[in-house]
Design brief:
57% of the residues lie in helices and 0% in strands. By secondary structure, the chain is an all-alpha fold. The longest helix has 21 residues, at 2-22.
Length: 256
Amino acid sequence: MRQAKLARLRERLISEATERLSRPRAFMSFVGVAEADELLNDIDGHPHAFVIACIMDRQMGAERAWRIPYELKQRIGSFRFSRLAELSLQDLERVMAQPEPLHRFPKVMSRNLYAAIRRIEGQYRGNAAEIWTGRPSSATIVRRFLEFDGVGQKIATMAANTLVRDFRIPVSDRYSIDISVDIQIRRVFARMGFVPEDASTEYIIYRARELHPEYPGIFDLVLWELGRTVCRPRRPACDDCQWRELCAHANRKGAH
């Protein structure tokens, strides 16, 4: 019985995520600040803003980290790549730290930012969009993000998934876009019954690959949104959840 419910839940999750992918590309609200979101959505004119935001998304709230490109623009007067390329490491350390730090670790992130600018300048001819142009494989995009200082598997995968899912960047496949395991996805995946509550990150990644090998990261957005809104850490609103009939946690809760 439980396996049948899990199979139905898997199909419904994939169906909903696939339906979202079929919609026209929409303006993405990354931080809820119009000017900051406009910069991040300008994937053609300022593709480096997206890349830098991904690099900054480390050990602090995502919304705060993704505001940093806009706040840097305010401090230096422009976010043209040519303007960024003019800045020395010392310049970046200053603008990242004053008048107040833009990141929890301004010195480390200044070095990562400087290295990113140099990589975009040298490897991609000053155009960060070359990371994903030409219908590359998903593995190529993930690998290219991993080459940036400070970027690990989670951020590299998240970046590739955002490009494909939200910006509709064409790729030759989606096999290497893994699920990005954070606290929301870990909690919801476990409560639904797909993984144990104490499952490792690697276990969750391979479980998602098992469930949908063609595109393991297809589960990301639906699970993440559910964790942020309904499937909260305490007092989850199971009665308001569209997945409650198939969810292991909701079924156990209803049995008491």
